[in-house]
Amino acid sequence: MTTMEGLLLAAIVLLALMVAGMLAVGVRLVRRLAAPTAPTGQPLSVIVDDPEAVAERERQRQTLVELQNSVSDAQTALEAERRSVAAARAEATAVRAENAAAKAEVATSRAEAQRVLDAAHAEADTVLQRAHRQAEEDAEQVRSTARRTGEREIAMLTSTAKDQAAEAERRLQRLDERERLHAAEAERLAERERQNVEEAERLAERDRRIAAAEAELAKWELGLQGKEQELAQAQEQRRKELERVAGLTADAAKSELVETIENQAKREAALLVRDIEADARSTGESRARHIVVDAIQRVASEQTAESVVSVLHLPSDEMKGRIIGREGRNIRAFETVTGVNLIIDDTPEAVLLSCFDPVRREVGRLTLEKLVLDGRIHPHRIEEVYDVARFEVERMCQRAAEDALVEVGITDIHPELVTLLGRLRYRTSYGQNVLKHLVETAHIAGIMASELKLDPELIKRSAFLHDIGKALTHEVEGSHALIGADVARRFGESDEVVHAIEAHHNEVQPQTIEAVLTQASDACSGGRPGARRESLEAYVKRLERIEEIAGAKSGVDKVFAMQAGREIRVMVRPEEVDEIGAAVLARDVAKQIEEELTYPGQIRITVVRESRTTEIAR
Fold first, then answer.
1. Residue ranges of the HD domain (predicted)?
2. CA–CA separation, 412 and 491 (whole Å)
3. pLDDT value at position 385?
4. Among 36, 56, 475, 543, which is most exposed with the fewest C-beta within 10 angstroms?
């Protein structure tokens, strides 16, 4: 029996004793509860009814129930222990069987080990014998290898000894050769020493000769100094004798001689300058004429003179009635909004638009053209189309300026200058389109600069921008040359360009070749036959002055010169000018025009004061 089995058996016995004791106690308690006895002198009914007795019995009953439960639990545990003991016995039996199998396996292993050991001893003997044989063979091979190695080393040592002997012989030969060379070098040094001694003797002899020559030269110098003193005394006596004979001192004679030579040089220089100037005038005038003619004939410019009337073709004559409108409502609204005279006569399928301002005339032409294409013609539609046409004209002006810049080859320019150049598309000077005049002037100036070997880009830029101030003459006081120079300076143009602009009408004296060529090219472009018309310019100036007089009054919104200047329509702001003020304004404008302008016939001044009230019904 193993220790585990003994412990399990002792535990089972202990549990059995505990269960037996509990059973005995439980039986005794049951008997007591089954036959209760009352205390002496008290009836049983009293005991039964006593609460304490009832509580005691209840406690005893609960105790009994607990004991019964404990007995049941003990029996369950006893049964479990029995099963455990049975399992332990089965396990012990299995362990005994395993021990027996292990013992048998150990015996088998011992037998196998003995057999393996015997085989190992036999194998070891065999291996030992083979090892002895191999060792003997290896020893013989080592002895043979050592013998061959020794023979090779002896041969190598012999060869090395021979080489060392040969090297020693060569060293001895080199030492002998070096000694011979040293001996020869010593002989050369001795010879050089002898030569140096001889050279030193020759130098000493030459020094003695030089010293003798220097002594002789010193004697000569003393003699020369005496002769120089005698010569100086003779010259002084001669000078005094000349001064006595001529009656002049040496300084006065020198001054007179210098003055004579100077006058002669000035005369010769003046003659040379006169000849050069005469030759320059003759050849320069011919050369300048050749350059100007060549520049003009190489510029094929367009016709720049423009009219003040535009013709618009209509799809049919019925459109004239729609343009006029009921009782002339549409034509009055058109002329009021655009400031352009609309002339409708018997010309088939055509109407005339007349205005001295080219920009305003072009806006009116586009407005009427769009109205005719759209077919809807009434005052409100006229105002809408007028705004669109004005924007298109501004865009065309910008495009025209960009095309002009590309044509003359200018790329880097301020955008504000491009805008100002665009305004010149519809600006004329004596009937000549200003923007085309600038392009033509730039081409002529560039050709002249190329002929004179100057910078054509700078001169073309100066000529192209010289009339930029004409875009602002109606906004800024002053001449267009000074206005243009100020604008160019403000937008970063160079000093040469600014000076050429301000000097092209001699308001500032020209100081550079760029300014002179700008003047020349401007004169070539504007002075050619057919370029300008004086009468048209005067007419336009008069109309502009009429509008300026009316526009300068307080409360004026717009001013339009109509009917070739015979009628002026003044649009006033109703919140600033009342009915009486409108009459006073018309009288003041008429009086100022009479005082300042000269004109044929009469001019009618019409002041229009219009109030509009708009409400939207929702």
1. 434-527
2. 12
3. 92
4. 475
Q: Is 425-532 a CATH 1.10.3210.10 domain?
A: yes
Per-position b or e across 353-367, b if 16+ CB within 10 A of its CB: bbbbbbbbbbbbbbb
- Which CATH number is 299-408's, of 3.90.830.10, 3.30.1370.10, 3.30.1380.10, 1.10.730.10? 3.30.1370.10
| Per-residue pLDDT tens digits for 572-607 | 998 888 888 888 899 999 999 988 887 766 788 999
Residue 495, C-beta contacts closer than 8 angstroms, at least 6 positions apart: none
What are the respective helix, strand and coil percentages of the chain, to the nearest 5? 75, 5, 20
Measured distance CA(42)–CA(39) in Å, rounded:
6
> CA-to-CA distance for 15 and 74, rounded, in angstroms?
8
**Backbone φ and ψ of 477, nearest 5°:** -75, 145
> How far is 79 from 19, CA to CA, in rounded Å?
12
Under the banding of pLDDT at 50, 70 and 90, the label for residue 47 is very low
Note every long-range contact of 130-135, with CB atoms under 8 Å and residues 24 or more positions apart, other chains counting.
none
Sorted by where each begins, the domain ranges of the chain are 3-240, 299-408, 425-532, 544-618
Mean pLDDT, range 502-529, rounded to an integer = 83
Structure tokens at 519: 């003047």
Secondary structure, 3-state, 165-205? HHHHHHHHHHHHHHHHHHHHHHHHHHHHHHHHHHHHHHHHH
Question: CA 284, CA 290: separation in Å to the nearest integer?
Answer: 10
Report yes or no: 468 and 485 within 8 Å, Cβ to Cβ.
no
Angle at 581 between CA 600 and CA 386, to 5 degrees: 70
- What's the residue count for the chain? 618
The residues, any chain, with a CB within 8 Å of residue 370's CB and separated by 6 or more, are 385, 388, 389
Whole-number Å distance between alpha carbons of 119 and 111? 12
Specify the pLDDT at position 501. 92
The phi and psi torsions of 528 (rounded to 5 degrees) equal -70, 155
pLDDT of residue 366: 92
447's enclosing H/E stretch is helix 434-451
Q: Reply yes or no on whether the pLDDT at 324 is more than 50.
A: yes
Whether pLDDT at 38 is above 60: no
Question: Is the separation of the CB atoms in 485 and 325 below 8 Å?
Answer: no
Instruction: Identify which has the larger pLDDT, 23 or 406.
Output: 406
Q: Whose structure tokens read 């001019």?
A: 603
Q: How far is CA 55 from the centre of its chain?
A: 107
**Where is average pLDDT lowest: 211-215, 284-288, 292-296, 410-414?**
292-296
Q: Nearest 5°: phi and psi at 72?
A: -60, -45
Of 423, 414, 437, residue with least CA distance to 525: 437
Token pair belonging to 408: 């003359």
User: Model's pTM, two decimal places?
Assistant: 0.42
Contact between 540 and 548 under an 8 Å Cβ cutoff? The reply is no
Weakest mean pLDDT among 78-82, 374-378, 387-391: 78-82
Angle at 271 between CA 267 and CA 276, to 5 degrees: 145
Cβ atoms 518, 466 nearer than 8 A: yes
Work out the mean pLDDT of the chain and round it to a whole number: 80
Reading the block at residue 135, the tokens are 């060792």
Could you tell me if 525 and 563 are in contact, meaning their C-beta atoms sit under 8 angstroms apart?
A: no
| CATH architecture assigned to 544-618 | 2-Layer Sandwich (3.30)
